[in-house]
Design brief:
Blueprint (H helix, E strand, L loop, with lengths): L1 E12 L6 E4 L3 E7 L5 E9 L14 H7 L5 H8 L4 E7 L5
Antiparallel strand pairs: 1-4, 1-5, 2-3, 3-4
Length: 97
């Protein structure tokens, strides 16, 4: 069953040299540098009633990513906007029998 949460992931550019946490009213983003050239991996989780596939390999659109996370400040927005391949997936609950 869909949990009410979906996640985004991608790699953008940032000047951050450490793990960063960003919190919104119905979302959060975690980012961390992956090389010395400014490439930064990020995962953003949003609370939404609109379910998404449960595969973390499903490509998403940059427009939808930016719309879902539009409430963040310009430093985060720049990292999201500079990403090329982005992915979105739904988070699903399972019950063990």
């Amino acid at each position: 069953m869909y949990s009410g949460y979906s996640a985004w992931r991608g790699i953008g550019l940032s000047n951050n040299k450490e793990v960063q946490f960003y919190f919104g009213s119905k979302s959060h983003i975690v980012s961390y540098p992956i090389d010395n050239n400014g490439r930064t991996s990020f995962v953003g989780v949003i609370k939404t009633k609109q379910s998404a596939h449960d595969s973390w390999k499903t490509k998403g659109s940059k427009a939808a990513l930016i719309d879902d996370l539009k409430d963040y400040d310009s430093s985060v927005f720049s990292m999201l906007d500079s990403s090329t391949d982005i992915y979105k997936w739904g988070i699903y609950e399972t019950t063990l029998k």
